[in-house]
Design goal:
This is Polygalacturonase-inhibiting protein. It is found in: Cell envelope. Keywords: Leucine-rich repeat, Repeat, Signal. Its main location: other. The chain has about 325 residues and is an alpha/beta fold. It has a single domain, classed as Alpha-Beta Horseshoe (Leucine-rich repeat, LRR (right-handed beta-alpha superhelix)). About 10% of the residues lie in helices and about 20% in strands. It is built from three helices and 20 strands. It has an eleven-stranded mixed β-sheet with strand order 1-2-3-4-6-8-10-12-14-16-18. Strands 5-7-9 form a three-stranded parallel β-sheet, with no helix packed on it. A three-stranded parallel β-sheet has the order 11-13-15, with no helix packed on it. A hairpin with a 5-residue loop joins strand 1 (about 65) and strand 2. The longest helix is centred in the N-terminal third of the chain and has 21 residues, at about 1-20. The chain starts with a helix and ends in an 8-residue tail after the last strand. Bound molecules: 2-acetamido-2-deoxy-beta-D-glucopyranose (7 copies).
């Protein structure tokens, strides 16, 4: 018994003494080569070089993640020394599940088509860069995509309808670009079909036309369409059955619809509809939620402000510049 224990101890100590050398370089060499090319394209910025650790083992770098086979699953790029484009070699990182290019003004050009080779890719994040051109419709050919963050770039053109065909798309943030055209109907749903989309952020672009009704069939949590040129009805984004919705910002558009019969979801916490052409009354159900953020100013609303909820906690600026709203915090109704 004791002998067996001893040999077990010897064996395990042997094992552990061998382990560090066996694991000396986990990073797959093809993946390492591809990352090296990306690092060079970025101009070998010192912060990035030390965060990636390509000269020792990329899998130990804090800005890189690998799977147990040493294949790169995630990288984070955050510096660039001279103008560069995302190199097509990114398509060689076969096991990549996500990547981030964040706050790199020197990043220009477009998204390379080679990323359609990445069959496990779930997250694309390119934000606060000078990425330009159109959002490529080939993103719709990567069915594994769940999170698309392309906010705060210089993207122009239309939102490709192909994004709406991604079965697992959960979060879409295209805010602060120069996108034009309408919101594709395909991003929504038709009656009876459920989609995992839980957050859609298209704020501060130049989107125009009506909001597609198909967005009203989603049980979505977060909607920000503010700062565009959207027109027409948006009443279908409200409703008692929108049980997930907690954030809704439609401000700074040209939406025009009757607010009187809208049912405000009781769990809504942020509602901003300022600077539109919304008319009618504030519906009684608006007194139910506890709002953290609320602004209906600069519309054409009329009638008494419902009491009994959280509306009286906001100052008059949240209600100002309407046709004839009245009651606390505005002057009393006649
Ligand atoms: C990327 O893959 C292509 C095609 O397999 C290959 O020719 C090329 O050498 C690879 N590049 C790097 C840097 O590994
Ligand atoms: C990126 O954009 C900023 C301002 O948005 C500009 O000052 C800068 O010159 C641009 N950089 C390149 C490399 O184009
Ligand atoms: C979509 O998500 C489901 C559930 O997580 C998963 O089983 C499926 O493989 C995903 N589809 C694609 C194309 O990645
Ligand atoms: C979308 O992008 C904005 C920047 O424009 C960022 O502040 C925000 O956190 C993002 N929103 C979501 C819901 O991802
Ligand atoms: C909510 O109800 C409306 C009709 O009252 C219906 O058209 C819509 O599909 C429902 N939405 C959800 C998310 O169930
Ligand atoms: C808005 O709807 C209410 C209730 O259905 C109705 O009484 C009112 O006349 C409508 N207002 C306008 C301006 O159409
Ligand atoms: C509501 O929005 C207007 C601008 O549209 C702004 O002036 C006002 O300060 C905002 N009020 C609150 C309470 O956020």
């Amino acid at each position: 018994m004791l002998r067996r224990l001893c040999s077990l101890l010897i064996l395990s100590s042997l094992f552990f003494s061998v382990l560090p050398t066996a694991a000396a370089k986990l990073c797959n060499s093809n993946d390492n080569d591809a990352l090296l090319e990306i690092q060079e394209a970025l101009g070998n910025p010192p912060d990035l070089v030390s965060a990636w650790q390509l000269d020792t083992d990329c899998c130990t770098g804090w800005a890189i993640e690998c799977n147990s086979e040493g294949r790169v699953t995630y990288f984070f790029a955050f510096r660039g020394n001279h103008p560069f484009q995302i190199p097509p070699v990114i398509g060689n990182l076969t096991y990549l599940q996500g990547f981030n290019f964040i706050e790199i003004p020197s990043l220009t050009g477009t998204i390379p088509e080679s990323i359609t080779l990445l069959r496990s890719l779930e997250r694309i994040s390119i934000s606060w860069t000078n990425l330009s051109g159109h959002i490529p419709s080939f993103l719709g050919q990567i069915p594994s995509l769940k999170y698309i963050y392309l906010n705060d770039n210089k993207l122009s053109g239309v939102i490709p309808p192909s994004l709406g065909h991604l079965p697992n798309l959960t979060e879409l943030n295209l805010s602060e670009n120069k996108l034009t055209g309408g919101i594709p109907r395909s991003l929504g749903s038709s009656t009876g079909t459920s989609r995992p989309l839980s957050s859609i952020v298209l704020a501060f672009n130049q989107l125009s036309g009506p909001i597609p009704r198909s967005l009203g069939y989603l049980n979505i949590a977060y909607i920000d369409l503010s700062g565009n040129n959207l027109v027409g009805d948006a009443s279908f984004l409200f409703g008692a059955n929108k049980t997930a919705l907690w954030y809704l910002n439609l401000g700074w558009n040209s939406l025009s619809f009757n607010f009187s019969d809208v049912k405000i979801p009781s769990q809504l916490s942020d509602m901003v509809i300022t600077n539109n052409k919304i008319y009618g009354r504030l519906p009684p159900s608006i007194a139910v939620p506890y709002f953290e953020e609320f602004n209906v100013s600069y519309n054409q609303l009329c009638g008494p402000i419902p009491t009994g909820g959280s509306l009286q906690l906001f100052d008059s600026w949240a209600f100002s510049h309407n046709k004839c709203l009245c009651g606390i915090p505005l002057p009393p109704c006649q």
